[in-house]
Amino acid sequence: MKTMTRVLLITVLMNGGFGLTQAAPAEGHGHHGKRSDGMDWKAGLNEEQSRQLATLKLEYKKQIFPLKLKLKEAKYELAVMIATDKPNQRDIDKKIDAIIKLKAEKMRLKVAHKIAVRKLLNNEQQVLFDLKLLKKGFHGKDGGHQGRH
């Protein structure tokens, strides 16, 4: 019973608690997360680029979704392995290696998608796209607004 309680607690924590908190939109973004500072590379897309981008996004989602599920499952399995009365370090290390492999594959797909998107853009759009990438790379996923108030 003690192990089951641990697994339940770990599951709740890994799923973001009980959903009582909600992240505030990052600064410089409007109501629906649209940038209000003129740095939105998507704003200048023509109809053909928008169509191609939608196709690329759909293909990316089809590839990444099963990988995300496998990653989530592996993380749950790791949590259960840790929460047992006698954790097996060798099995835990194997699970960690599997998680790292899944994360690497996810990152490869994400980077390949960004490269494909960038190829659709003209020079001006690429500059805005590159600036956004560099800003994310330097400040993190939300452009450096995480934890700031």
Give a quick summary of the entry:
This protein is an all-alpha fold and 149 residues long.
> How many strand elements?
0
Distance between the termini: 42 Å
Helix content: 55-70%
**What is the CATH architecture descriptor?**
Up-down Bundle
CATH topology: Four Helix Bundle (Hemerythrin (Met), subunit A)
Structural class: mainly alpha
Q: Can you walk through the features of this model?
A:
The protein is mostly helical. 66% of the residues lie in helices and 0% in strands. It contains four helices and no strands. The chain has helices at residues 2-14, 47-82, 89-120, 123-139. Mean pLDDT is 79; it is low at 16-36.
What are its keywords?
single chain; 149 residues; mainly alpha; Four Helix Bundle (Hemerythrin (Met), subunit A); 4 helices
Q: What is the strand and helix layout of this fold?
A:
Layout: H1 2-14, H2 47-82, H3 89-120, H4 123-139
